[in-house]
Amino acid sequence: QVQLVESGGGLMQAGGSLRLSCAVSGRSFSRYAMVWFRQAPGKERDFVAGISRDGSKTYYADSVKGRFTISRDNAKNTVYLQMNSLTLEDTAVYYCATGEVHTMVVTTNPTEYEYWGQGTQVTVSS
Predict the structure, then answer these.
(1) Between vectors from CA 103 to CA 57 and to CA 17, what angle results, nearest 5°?
(2) pLDDT per position as a tens digit, 66-110
């Protein structure tokens, strides 16, 4: 049984930083790419960042490029999302996800990922 557990969300003032973590169990973590999505109230689930199975390739949405950094520690079966210079528009529930297909390249389509965490709320205040 594959399980993904996010942590690290919370309330932060605009301009601040947060680091999200996603611990994965039940599968060979290092064989698959990992991604982060987010969903704000009343909006679709949007791609935020992705990382290849070995960490050599990273991918970002334009809205977070230069502010967010995705990384992974295959020894700890964990993927991270470092979020800096937070803005009000970053407020959302953040989800980590992985699938059965993607290894080195990720897709921004959420329907292509079979496994999801429960989400962690990030709220940015002014």
Answers:
(1) 50
(2) 999 999 999 999 999 999 999 999 999 999 999 998 888 899 999
